[in-house]
Amino acid sequence: IYDDITEAKTAEEALKRSEDRYRQLFESSPVSMWEEDFSEGKVYLDHLKDSGISDFRKYFDENPEEVIKLAGMAKVLDINRATLDLMKAKSKEEFIVSLPGIFTPQSIETFKEELITIAEGEVLFKGESTHKTLSGDTIDVIIHMAVAPGYENSFGRILISILDITERKK
Length: 170
Description:
Elements: H1 6-28, E1 32-37, H2 39-50, H3 56-62, H4 64-71, E2 75-79, H5 81-87, H6 92-98, H7 105-119, E3 124-132, E4 138-147, E5 158-164, H8 166-169
Antiparallel strand pairs: 1-2, 1-5, 3-4, 4-5
Helix pairs in contact: 3-4, 4-7
């Protein structure tokens, strides 16, 4: 007795090729790309909504510490080489450990707008902001956030791209 596993092997090889292609595109992209898990923050926002908060702009204006708290709930799953170059980090580990230091008052304000967008049920966000590199330089950036398909309810996988527009702004 034997089982023909040709079809399963073919599917497995196709999946591996697809994963390799995705990894290559992600790693070699000239644009800074991040993959985050914001499921903990989404649960927290949903809890705030369930407790009766409907005007998140007013809530975050009156409770700015909540924006910082929610920023800490974003878990960086992966970043690409362009992110390391943009932020002047030597490794992914160095970048993740140093992440709180990249935020400026303007980037906190932009993150607040992103949180309001998420609280309103949106899965896309675009904003302009500033960040600090690990070497201390301030850069102007455009941020695009998109929830990956299939994660619209949990926000367990968010894709973020960051484009450096510092020279354009000057």
